[in-house]
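Second attempt. The first submission of Ornithine carbamoyltransferase had a stray character pasted in from the spreadsheet, which I only caught after the job came back as garbage. Lesson logged: always re-copy from the clean sequence file. Corrected sequence (300 aa) follows.
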Amino acid sequence: MNLISIADLTPEEILEVLDRADEMKARRNDPSRGEVLAAKSIAAIFEKPSTRTRVSLEVAMTELGGHALYLSSDDLQLGRGETVADTARVLSRYVHAIAARVYHHATVEELARYAAVPVINLLSDLEHPCQILADMMTMRERFGRLEGLKVAWVGDGNNVCNSTILAAALMGMEMVVASPPGFGPNGKILDQADRLGGGTVVVTDPVKAVCGADVVETDTWVSMGDEAEADRRKVAFQRYQVNSDLIRHAADEAIVLHCLPAHRGCEITDDVMDGPRSAILDQSENRLHSVKAVLERLMV
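This time the job returned cleanly.
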């Protein structure tokens, strides 16, 4: 089994992962928790730099008794022209799983096609399934449920947005996305969400999106790989800042999420990020516990 898209998991499997993540979080300091991945290794391919993804993965493997090998493009022959397929075949002879944080979704799909071990998408330009698992874990901690929650995404319709759309469809959440024209979510992802039974509403008015929302989520306006568009994007997204004026339209108990890193003063203001509505640090911590549950599920 691989985790390339959040839609690779059924709703029942998502709940099982989240339940296990909750248990692992509660028992993190329990010496009897066991090392279920003892003597197992994962190859972690990073084409993009990372803080949360790399640290959470390496710590998760260590706490489960296994070992993570950090492999940048410079560390692999991929950087010198070796094919993804050959890399997948060879690594499968050494390790028990492959995880990859890549520029192009096709790369992680090709790894999964040729690998003989589980492959985990740590981020691609299309999806970020490990992030949305942490997000859903955080939502359940705050609200005790997922079904029926209204999630408002404000900003760029990027990879995290795409995974959130699919997760909302799978788990019975209402999803509204507010993006500037031309910066909305992937059309194929929207069609897939429709087929899963949970259509997403896409609007250009952030106030309309946030009105009555239980969860308000945002991300950087300029993702890695979009730097050449930085100036144009900052102009286009000026109305889409998550600030106190916008948050007052959300539900009284609404929480704010941001997968980080944040550009404070751009997509989110300090008073919101550090304020009482923010669940951002819990969300960030939950990357560890949720990926532990994923690793155990795929590698045991």
